[in-house]
Amino acid sequence: MKRLAWTATALLIGACATPQQQAETKERGERLLAKTLEGRVAGPAQNCIPTGFTNGPQVVGDSLIYRQSGKRIWRSQVGDRCPFLRDDQIVVSILYGTQVCRNDRFRLVDRGSRIPSGDCTFGEFVPYDKVR
User: How far apart are CA 119 and CA 18, in angstroms?
Assistant: First the structure.
């Protein structure tokens, strides 16, 4: 019952934004994602990535970004798997072992209110490498 209350609260907070604010937030996220991936080429999608050598995740647009090195970034597109995703939230991953995998769960926590969202799931992980 508590989970349902938290999820409803998180959805209501996101629903308070006007359609114009939602569109502006989405556009800002798309611009930031394009900038993040600029000069990089996508490789084949993977189901899992090891977490020991990555920094992240960071919410960028409709995706979670893990930075492996200055050369490689991993992107997991989660927008459809997490409708209340916003770039000002803290990502709390639920890990089992040394990898994060597609369909593993995570939550988002609102920075101001510390209210957690319902569970979301990771999508595939696509590597983006810098073009030389």
Answer: 24
Backbone angles phi, psi at 77, to 5 degrees: -80, 120
Q: Do residues 62 and 33 touch, judged by C-beta distance below 8 A?
A: yes
DSSP string, 25-61: HHHHHHHHHHHHHTTEEE---BSEEESTT-EEEEEET
Inter-CA distances, 69 with 43, 55, 56, 98, Å: 15, 8, 11, 18
- Give the whole-number percent of the chain exceeding pLDDT 70: 87
> Cα(21)–Cα(97) distance, rounded to whole angstroms?
39
pTM above 0.70, yes or no: yes
CB-based contact 122:100 (threshold 8 Å): yes
User: 48-50 and 63-67 as β-strands: parallel, antiparallel, unpaired?
Assistant: unpaired
Structure tokens at 54: 């990555």
